[in-house]
UniProtKB/TrEMBL annotation:
UniProtKB keywords: Glycosidase, Hydrolase
Protein name: Beta-fructofuranosidase
Glycosyl hydrolase family 32 N-terminal domain: residues covered: 12-321
A Pfam family recorded for this sequence: Glyco_hydro_32C
Natural source organism: Solanum tuberosum (Potato)
Length: 536
């Protein structure tokens, strides 16, 4: 991906995350010179625990004829001889012509792999005449087929058809295009930052990209240049035909499932062999109009890394903050068996509400009061329904949830909540993270949507759970154990630092019980640094 959509961004998409010899690496698009996006370099940070990060000098930056005009996104692959290699997109001219290059560590025995070299046989992949060479970018992590060929995907577009173009290579140096794309969809527009990986049918363990035995599905995620959000499908990778076929249960287009229904883009996952898990990194783009002056606490602007796996239903992915995050938990408060009648709100005291981790399970005694779901809403995004049915609109079963980053008298707050509807033959659970009342700043250009997604959850036991990670200007929320995730960027003016409050609320006629609530003050990482402000 690239950083010219919002000129103020100085650092964006996560690139080439990997685990190598005990160290986690994260590269990300960084602009040391402010808003001119031709200057983008790959900033580089390392960690041994995914929480405390050390910033290093940039790993990749424009320096050769094959990337003189820009070093855009890419991915890392660990070769069988335990050598890491990065494929990335280079911009070669002022017309934005894109090629695929590789870089390798200058010194494999440097534990941090500080220096990367770009050998003279670059570029490895150049667009042929059938490809739009100005929309040809973001190579994926490569996988090794049973036929002995490496494969990678590159995002592209033809007309309005999004494409995942497939290349293969025996030796990683000479690549040939497979005639048909791995997958393509009409009407989606350009595909950026594709991510393609196997997931186990059962359990939460992750798999290496090359894993292709029984009992797996594959997931394909694409970032949509046109809409600025991502979607994914779950399906089957037919290795004989080199085609990916989404399951019938996956909507394959703009209305498809999202990893995150909020400020979240250009995500990239990697396999972590040290804990047998797949980890997803995403970028929570700024929605403020000017650079924010409330310094962030513990998250950086990259979102919290999430462990990712296939839901037991086989229909969707599930994500949950990596367990290492829990090492930052400090003082804790608990509530249990508290009733919330319509209009009630209970303040959670004894923690720092501007920097907190909150886990809550709600229960209710009946589904009878669920409001009818208007069939016309089927054509809308969940976000549009949340805009109609916000937290202040009284309901039946819901709205209930948290009021995060709230000022004392609720002049500002970001509510994260559920509302249960009765559709024709089933219940529909809407989850919202509504930034529309998050700040008194009233700039017309500020993006303050009522982010929302539906939660595919069985309500037989009449409970719904929610976890929210609150960090000054970011609220990351996980509904029903991570089935639906929403990240909101917000910029309160009153609800900052010690003046922020946290409430649990109910605004529906059905009484809600706080079955259990645990909340923690979150500490800061030991080597805390802000992604946009490291000095080179």
């Amino acid at each position: 991906m690239h950083g010219h959509h919002r000129m103020l961004q100085t650092n964006t998409d996560p690139n080439a995350p990997m685990y190598y010899n005990g160290v986690y690496h994260l590269f990300y698009q960084y602009n040391p010179y402010g808003s001119v996006w031709g200057n983008i370099v790959w900033a580089h940070s390392v960690s041994t625990d995914l929480i405390n990060w050390i910033p290093l000098e940039p790993g990749i930056y424009p320096s050769e004829v094959f990337d003189k005009y820009g070093t855009w996104s890419g991915s890392a692959t660990i070769l069988p001889n335990n050598k890491p290699i990065i494929l990335y997109t280079g911009i070669v001219d002022a017309k934005n012509t894109q090629v695929q290059n590789y870089a390798i560590p200058a010194n494999i025995s440097d534990p941090f792999l500080r220096k990367w070299i770009k050998p003279d046989n670059n570029p490895l992949i150049v667009a042929d005449v059938s490809i739009n060479k100005t929309q040809f970018r973001d190579p994926t992590t490569c996988w090794l087929g049973q036929d002995g060929y490496w494969r990678t995907l590159i995002g592209s577009v033809w007309g309005k058809q999004g494409l995942a173009i497939l290349y293969k290579s025996k030796n990683f140096m000479k690549w040939t295009k497979i005639q048909h794309p791995l997958h393509s969809v009409d009407g989606t527009g350009n595909w950026e930052c594709p991510d393609f990986f196997p997931v186990l049918l059962h359990g939460t363990n992750g798999l290496d990209a090359s894993y292709n035995k029984k009992n797996i599905k594959h997931a394909l995620k694409v970032s949509l240049d046109v809409t600025r959000f991502e979607y994914y499908t779950v399906g089957i990778y037919d290795t004989k035909k080199d085609r990916y076929i989404p399951d019938k249960t996956s909507i394959d287009g703009w209305k498809g499932l999202r990893l995150d229904y909020g400020n979240y883009y250009a995500s990239k996952s990697f396999y972590d062999p040290s804990k047998n898990r797949r980890i997803m990194w995403g970028w929570a783009n700024e929605s403020d109009t000017v650079n924010d002056d409330v310094k962030k606490g513990w998250a950086g602007i990259q979102t919290i890394p999430r462990k990712l796996w296939l839901d037991p239903s086989g229909k969707q992915l599930v994500q949950w903050p990596v367990e290492e995050l829990e090492t930052l938990r400090e003082q804790k408060v608990q509530l249990s068996n508290r009733k919330l009648n319509k209009g009630d709100k209970i303040e959670v005291k004894g923690i720092t509400p501007a920097q907190a981790d909150v886990e809550v399970t709600f229960s209710f005694s009946s589904l009878d009061k669920a409001e009818p779901f208007d069939p016309n809403w089927d054509n809308l995004y969940a976000q549009d329904v949340c805009a109609i049915k916000g937290s202040t609109v009284q309901g039946g079963l819901g709205p209930f949830g948290l009021l995060t980053l709230a000022s004392q008298n609720l002049e500002e707050y970001t509510p994260v909540f559920f509302r249960v509807f009765k559709a024709q033959d089933k219940y529909k659970v809407l989850m919202c993270s509504d930034a529309s009342r998050s700040t008194l700043k009233n700039d017309k250009t500020m993006y303050k949507p009522s982010f929302a997604g539906y939660v595919d959850v069985d309500l037989t036991n009449k409970t719904l759970s929610l976890r929210s990670l609150i960090d000054h200007s970011v609220v990351e929320s996980f509904g029903a154990g991570g089935k639906t995730c929403i990240t909101s960027r917000v910029y309160p003016t009153l609800a900052i630092y010690d003046n922020a409050h946290l409430f649990v609320f109910n605004n529906g006629t059905e009484t809600i019980k706080i079955k259990s609530l645990n909340a923690w003050t979150m500490g800061k990482p030991k080597m805390n640094w802000s992604f946009g402000h490291s000095s080179y």
